[in-house]
Structures are given as C-alpha cells and as structure tokens.
C-alpha cells in the first residue's frame, strides 16, 4: 500500500522569502502522480501543482515549484516570494493512474504554513 | 457551472441518528469520491465510484454506505451515527479527460454528539 509522509506539522516564513515543504512517499509502482494541495481557512481544497512520475523535469507554476526525486521517493514544494495569502495547510498527495485503483488520492498529514508580515 | 456542490454544509447529529450527505457535480465526470478529514490528518478515502451504478470501498469504509444512481450524484449515508464519525467530509469528482485532477466540493462539517 502507498503511504505519504509530511514530517513538518508547522512552518513559518517571512513575507517575500522562500520556504520549502517536505514530502516523502512509498510505492512499488513506476507510474503515478504527485500533487500539492492548499487548504486555506475556507476549507476549500485547491490544487497547487502536479507532477507526473514519468517526467524528469520538475513542475513549476508561477511562484511554486517542486523538487521531485523519484529514486529517493521525495517530493518537496518550494514557495518563492511568499505572500500572506499563502498562509494555509498544505497537503502532499499520491495517486495511481485511473486504470489502476480508480484514481484514489492518498494524502499526507499536512503542513500548516504561516506567512508572517 | 457550479462544479462540485455538497449538501448540507453543516449538521449536528445525535448518536444513533441517520443522515445522508449529497454530492452533485455538473461536469459529467465519471469518477466520484468521498473523503473525511480529521484534525492532524490528511483526507482519507471512504468510498468511491468509477461510474453510474458502481461503488467501491476506500480506506475507511466502516459505518458508511454510498449510492450512485445517477452519474451526477454520489450519496454518502450514515445509518447509525457515532461520535467517531465527527469530521469534515469532502466529495470530489474526476473525469477521464482530466489530467488526473480531482475537483473538490466545499466540505460538510458533521458533529455527532
């Protein structure tokens, strides 16, 4: 069974600085997808960034980028130029392809990020 | 286009009562999911459906039942609520054409006293 571990329950960063959130996972599969979701106090789950395991290039979305280390089974999220609106809970998640196990998401425990002015 | 909606948004139940949570999506998605979120934990999958008329168990299915009689709706039932089912419940949907992105509803906060 797949597992996802986020070892940082809480983190804080000054506005405009850079912060990295860590995530490790365990799987025996070769093809899968990894995600970072943001959950602000509104409770809405917002997709931040996605990485396909077969792609060697790290995904980037504006100020958000990942460091995907497939052999080490590591998937960290870097937030550059942190903004007050980035304050939220961040979840790392793993998904097998839809044809295998129905596309179920497996989440880590979450990292609560506070951006301080 | 409302996306994924959940009804109700909040509910308080007494132990032993029953209720049904409704999830509706207007994106013609094939796949639908029910997750629960507890403090200090990520979302955990309760049940899911890969198409109309089909359901399957997830990670924490005990105490819940589901039905998907129509493609756009996915119902989660609690037959006899227990305090351990106090949680926030999220529904999500995903289409075959999506690049593995699940769309989440706003959540339902359920308290069982």
What's this entry about, in short?
With 117 residues, chain A is mainly β.
Keywords:
heterodimer; A: 117 residues; mainly beta; six-stranded mixed beta sheet; 12 strands; globular; B: 113 residues; seven-stranded mixed beta sheet; four-stranded antiparallel beta sheet
Structure write-up:
The complex is a heterodimer of chains A (117) and B (113). With 117 residues, chain A is an all-beta fold. Chain A is built from no helices and twelve strands. Chain A has strands at 3-5, 10-14, 19-21, 24-26, 33-39, 46-52, 60-61, 64-69, 74-79, 88-95, 105-107, 111-116. In chain A, strand 8 (64-69) and strand 9 form a beta hairpin. The mean pLDDT of chain A is 94. In chain B, 0% of the residues lie in helices and 49% in strands. Chain B has no helices and eleven strands. In chain B, strands 2, 4, 5, 6, 9, 10 and 11 form a seven-stranded mixed sheet that branches. In chain B, strands 1-3-8-7 form a four-stranded antiparallel sheet, with no helix packed on it. Chain B is globular, with a radius of gyration of 13 Å. The N and C termini of chain B lie far apart (36 Å). The model of chain B has no long low-confidence stretch (mean pLDDT 94). Chain A binds chain B through residues 4, 6, 9, 33, 42-45, 47, 50, 91, 93, 95, 97-98, 102-110, and chain B through 31, 33, 35, 40-45, 48, 50, 56, 58-59, 88, 90, 92, 94, 96, 99-102, 104, 106-107.
């Amino acid at each position: 069974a797949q597992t996802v571990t986020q070892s940082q329950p809480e983190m804080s960063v000054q506005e405009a600085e850079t912060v990295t959130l860590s995530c490790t996972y365990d799987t025996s599969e070769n093809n899968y997808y990894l995600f970072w979701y943001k959950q602000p106090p509104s409770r809405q789950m917002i997709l931040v960034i996605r990485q396909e395991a077969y792609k060697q290039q790290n995904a980037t979305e504006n100020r958000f980028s990942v460091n995907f280390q497939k052999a080490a089974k590591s998937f960290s999220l870097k937030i550059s130029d942190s903004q007050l609106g980035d304050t939220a809970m961040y979840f790392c998640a793993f998904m097998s392809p839809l044809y295998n196990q129905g596309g179920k998401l497996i989440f880590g425990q979450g990292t609560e990020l506070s951006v301080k002015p | 286009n409302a996306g994924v909606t959940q009804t109700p948004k909040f509910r308080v139940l007494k132990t032993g009562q029953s209720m049904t949570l409704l999830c509706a999506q207007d994106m013609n998605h094939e796949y639908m999911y029910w997750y629960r979120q507890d403090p200090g934990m990520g979302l955990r999958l309760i049940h899911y459906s890969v198409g109309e008329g089909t359901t399957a168990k997830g990670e924490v299915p005990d105490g819940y039942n589901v039905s998907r009689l129509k493609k756009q709706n996915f119902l989660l039932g609690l037959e006899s609520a227990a305090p351990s089912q106090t949680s926030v419940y999220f529904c999500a949907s995903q289409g075959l054409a999506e690049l593995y992105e699940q769309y989440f509803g706003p959540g339902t906060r359920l308290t069982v006293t």
